[in-house]
Amino acid sequence: MNQIYYKMKKYHLSSIVIVLLWGIFSQNLSAQNTIKEAVVRVEGEVLKPLTLTISDLAKMKHVDAVMKNREGILQQYSGVPIFDLLQQAGVTVGKELKGENLTKYMLVRSSDGYEMIFSLAELDPGFTNRVVILADSKDGKPLADGAGPFRLVVPDENKPARSALEVTHFIIRFAKD
Ligand SMILES: Nc1nc2c(c(=O)[nH]1)N[C@H]1C(S)=C(S)[C@@H](COP(=O)(O)O)O[C@H]1N2
Ligand SMILES: [Mo]
């Protein structure tokens, strides 16, 4: 009787060890397999939420945008107009940007938690000639770690505080919510 009990206990222990080892091992494996690809999302008050990878963005029409850095030195970036991203996501821009839609804003969020907003009218060529872009390169090179892969470039502002580094989300909301 004692011997059976001992055997059962031993069996029980070894199965716990196996489960633990398997847990550690499979976690390591999945950590290796899920080196996450950087994406930027457009979500909230949109008809079609977008999740764009570096290569998705690279395929879109690019324009240059110039902005002063913190030291006041002009920097030229290349990227996709935010307006194009908003159109692709089915945001109420263009003809639809009137009435209560003019109370909508775009919250920009970065991987370090940095956040700020633009009103939709600030991004729509019906209202302004200024083109804000989501930059993915500078001087023909991908943006450096800590700035990229996606950076907002906002021309014609006196300080670059809205030029978010490491952008991860554009979230469209109603200001009255
Ligand atoms: N994600 C993120 N973006 C950011 C900031 C930040 O803290 N986090 N600081 C802003 C401020 S206040 C400035 S002045 C500029 C600095 O950009 P630069 O280093 O290219 O001059 O980045 C802006 N973008
Ligand atoms: Mo700043």
Give a concise summary.
With 177 residues, the chain is of the alpha+beta class.
Q: What keywords describe this structure?
A:
177 residues, alpha+beta, five-stranded mixed sheet, five-stranded antiparallel sheet, elongated, binds ligand MTE, binds molybdenum atom
Report on this structure.
The chain has 177 residues and is α+β, with helices and mostly antiparallel strands. The chain is built from 3 helices and 10 strands, in the order H-E-E-H-E-E-H-E-E-E-E-E-E. It has helices at 2-33, 54-58, 82-88; strands at residues 39-44, 50-53, 63-68, 74-81, 104-110, 115-119, 133-138, 141-142, 151-153, 167-174. The strands form 2 sheets. Strands 2-1-10-5-6 form a 5-stranded mixed beta sheet. Strands 3, 4, 7, 8 and 9 form a 5-stranded antiparallel beta sheet that branches. It starts with a helix and ends with a strand. The mean pLDDT is 89. The structure holds the ligand Nc1nc2c(c(=O)[nH]1)N[C@H]1C(S)=C(S)[C@@H](COP(=O)(O)O)O[C@H]1N2 and molybdenum atom. Residues 69-70, 110, 112, 114, 159-161, 163-166 line the site of ligand MTE.
